[in-house]
Amino acid sequence: MKIESRERDGAVVVALVGEVDLQHSPSVRKHLMELMFDRRPVVVDMTAVEYIDSSGIASLVEAYQAARKNGTRFVLAAVSQPAMRVLQLARLDKVFALADTVEAGLSA
Amino acid sequence: MSNAPPSIEVINLDTHYGDRQVLKNVSLSVNPGEIFVIMGGSGSGKTTLLNHLLGLLRPTSGTIRILGKDINTLSSLEMQDLRTRMGVAFQSGALFSSMSVGDNIALPLREHTDLDEMTIGIVTRLKLEVVSLAGFEHLMPAELSGGMIKRAAFARAIVMDPKLLFCDEPSAGLDPVVASSIDDLILRLRDAMGMSIVVVTHDLDSTFKIADRICVLDKGEVLALDTVDAIRNSPNERIQNLLNRRTEEAEVDPDAYLRRLLGEKEKHANQPTQGRTGL
Ligand SMILES: Nc1ncnc2c1ncn2[C@@H]1O[C@H](COP(=O)(O)OP(=O)(O)O)[C@@H](O)[C@H]1O
Ligand SMILES: [Mg+2]
Q: What's the ipTM?
């Protein structure tokens, strides 16, 4: 999988591309937690997540909690169908801040 | 989905306990994302078949391919690797009584991954949420009811997000409401994670609710293998007899019965054994 970060409107858009599984979730976690440490607002672009396992979800949970403590924005945007089903399984769709598009996530 | 390779392929499986043949020329395949139910009366060979699919027994002859791998040709290291992609919810729960529920569930992650302890903790609690046991991580297995033990066993079975999940008698010994909640859980897991799920059961209500296809075993042979509707409407008299037989005599669970005879303590309190339709 790939992690693509870019600056936009003062926030960092982190696109997760491909399969976020056991093998890759530690790097997703590290990437997101560094941004949290720097108190950066983050929009995670999940359009191209083909699969995400529980360890990937756990990385998002940890980052989201850090953002809430910081009082910074952390939005999951354009969540793909497969990722949404996994979020719904644990009712996390009711917990995360979600946006239909990256643009909406940036202005939320 | 239909042209994806099968998750499980069994070809002409024969197996014996000593001289006695227990499975006879069993062939079947399970598709990705399919819920495949193995049914049959007590002693028909369901658990034996399951143990073969898990690579715990060696067949007399025949081929078993799991996630594309012929398990008879695998080294023990390769088998171990394959096992991390299979989850098993055992008949009796099989939690370690000396460990908290949370530690039981986290165990496969601690053994097989290098994940950060923070991630392991979140994943463990996520799974407890999924099986409706949120907040129970610090309890010991002995403090749980039968239905809760089953759900905890599920949580552990899915903690590694397996591609393939095996459940042996998931609703055995549970009252109908709890049994039905386990059925819902199986359906949700398949829908959300796309797992292939093999369920061994003699519970007809459960089978008709969750199965995509049913394999009926009778004295070690595949008596029928078809969709729920086809099995229900089968003109075969032996199948109809099996389907219409009710459990006046409750099914004997050999594990539980042997534990009782040996005076070993039952882990789960409060297990009604009647109430559901079964073979
Ligand atoms: N370890 C064993 N040694 C000898 N015979 C066994 C053993 N385990 C099961 N059997 C026999 O094999 C047959 C199939 O058993 P099993 O697979 O447990 O059936 P089921 O799960 O459908 O009740 C039964 O006749 C049983 O008595
Ligand atoms: Mg059995």
A: 0.93
